[in-house]
Amino acid sequence: MKTRIITVVVINISLLSLLLSGCSNNVSPAGQTSQVERGDLDIVVSSDGSLTMPNEFDLRFGTTGQVDEILVEEGETIKQGALLAMLDNTAQKNAIKTALFSIQTAKNNISFGCGIDHLPYNYPDLSVPRLLNEAQRDIDEAVKYFKQGNYKDAGYKLIMTYFDIEVCEDLIKFRPNAAVLAGAKSNSTYYPDVTAGDSVPQSAYNDMVTDSLQEYRMELLDIAQQMKIGDYARITPQFDKVQQEMITVSQLAESTVYLKGSQMFEYPDTSTSADFLQSSMRLLQELEEYIAQGDAMPVEAAKMLYIAKLNLLVGRDILENQTSIFASGGSINWKTLQQYNLSLQSAEIALYEAKQDMMKTVIIAPSDGTVVSVDLKKDYVLSAQDYSSRTAVKLVDTKSLKFTGLVDEIDILEVERGQKAGITVDAVPDRVFTGAVTFISPYGTEENNVVKFAVTIELDPTDVELTGGLSATADINVYSAKNALLVPVSVITTTPSGPIVAVINEATGQPEPRKVTLGKQNFQFAEVLSGLEEGEKVQMINQEGTLNAPTTQQRSGSPGAMRILR
């Protein structure tokens, strides 16, 4: 009698390995087969948190004063760079006039010292031309920022231009009579009226010029109003128009300065000297870096030091020679010129500071957004005690949203800046919003004996009106493989020698254990690096950890079993 031999292959695995292989949500019944296929593998790290609006602005005035205008209302949607509110700026305008007078005084002092003053006809009256130069620079910068899409700074420079022109109007309207201030009697033998017989009296001409300046200011204000609603298509040609009109405005305003000296000094000979000084400073910096290298040669260091010293001597000689001053025919010494330069530069700094103080009387929208509250009213007086803490307008950018949440310490090292994420909001369950990781906290916080790290995700623009504070969950995509060879995790068994998979033998139709090399995996699929081929069928090991192998009969004897221990 022939003995038939029955061979049963049994794979024993530990309880831990069995639990690991059974963590899939889609656990298949024992004996059910799956096919190895290609697909996309995405691994995500989840984070619970909420939505925030990072661009919330409590806008305040930067100085004391009486509220002149509030130009927005609650619930109004405005655009970046819009003019929102204004204080009375009388004191700030006077400060600008004072600074301009100081500049003029400094220039007058040097012109008198050089013997070129001829009062009263060419008394230097340069405040208006000086401020118009500021206005030209401000409007040019406003146009530049606007074309760059920087509407906040464009609006800032636009309003600064508005104030430049407003002060020019006051300077022309209320200009003092220089000759009278100097003691000359009007239309006398020594001071004849040089404007007698003109077709248009000077006062009437000045009024015409100030009317033109006022019209120009209204054009600037109209652009500011259009920026409030974001009508950029209309604003673009208007900006080009006012930039060109500035040339005409400057010419008109300067034509009112009819008592003006022909020769004025401004920083005599300092520019060339400053170039040599800066060159010396650069050489000294290079010398310091060269010596710090450790292998510096004394000869080379001495050469660099000599050149720096030579540049300083040349710059000093240029100032001491005073070539341009003496060429004017006047007599002035170094001490006087130095004092002139210091006085003029101090006056220029005062003008810059006065213009900055003027801008503290307005509120410019730093971002697009919605006005959620207006906390000041017209004519309210801000004091030194409350102006810095009293909010005038609260603005929220509802289009700028961020997700803030926590990630477990086990997963945090997988998260990187720039990774994409899908965000689901409890209040909008049928939508998945997208974004990217922008911040990962370097410090963890312990919560219920678990350390977690804060992450921030900036949401992409969306057409859904979301608000801050909504609960949300983010799935951060920490790994993605396209067209990868995938196998269900439910068919994988972990052993001390590595993972194995039961592969169906096409010839016998029976499962056979095979060692595989795996890459990344999620709760459903694992990436196969080697050991399996596309199209092969795999089977899950039963809960006892055994595979029923093909059975063959021995010709004699009783059934036997062979157990392979791993």
Quick summary of this structure?
Among the domains are: 9-42 and 482-564, conserved putative lor/sdh protein from methanococcus maripaludis s2 fold (Beta Barrel), CATH 2.40.420.20; 47-53 and 397-480, Beta Barrel (Elongation Factor Tu (Ef-tu), domain 3), CATH 2.40.30.170.
Largest sheet: 6 strands, antiparallel, barrel
Q: How many distinct helices?
A: 11
Strand content: 25-35%
- The CATH topology assignment of the domain at 9-42 and 482-564 is conserved putative lor/sdh protein from methanococcus maripaludis s2 fold
Average pLDDT reading: 77
Helix proportion range: 25-40%
- What are the segments in which pLDDT stays under 50 over at least 5 consecutive residues? 1-30, 112-124, 181-185, 188-192, 196-200, 259-269, 548-566
Radius of gyration, CA atoms, in whole angstroms: 41 Å
Kindly report the spatial arrangement of strands forming the biggest sheet: 3-12-15-14-13-16
How many extended strands? 23
Which CATH first-tier class of the domain at 9-42 and 482-564 would you pick? Mainly Beta
So, CATH architecture of the domain at 9-42 and 482-564?
A: Beta Barrel
Give the termini distance in whole angstroms.
35 Å
Can you tell me the overall shape?
Answer: elongated
Structural class: alpha+beta
